[in-house]
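Margin note from the TA: students keep mixing up input and output lines. Inputs are the sequences; the output is the structure of the whole complex. Example:
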Amino acid sequence: MQLIPQGKVACYGQIADLAGLPGRARLVGKALGKVPKSGWHGQVVPWFRVINSQGKISFPPGSENFEKQKQQLQDEQVVVLGARIKLKDFQWQPDLSEILFFLEF
DNA sequence: ACCTTGACGGTTC
DNA sequence: GGAACCGCCAAGG
């Protein structure tokens, strides 16, 4: 299973698509909210690398969650101005070779 | 069974 | 960019 690489971000819709649930981005957000800090299956879930399609952090600016997410992203070199992140530079785009490498034939 | 609530998204103006 | 609108759907009241 692959996770979003550090230093990169993905949007809710993108994750929904990868999960075979096109158009159900909200469901992804809701699901992330239920993930314990410790993660599931002994895997830590990098929820902070998921933002909305407008390239913004989806928490009210100034809220505790907002600040925590912003900080963790910045800790891994992702540039965050206000709530905005330049998807053009930081959005995760798995390339073909990477997909083929992880695919079980 | 009905209504509300979301860590959303695409379209349009 | 930004705001209004509408579509989406699982959970919980």
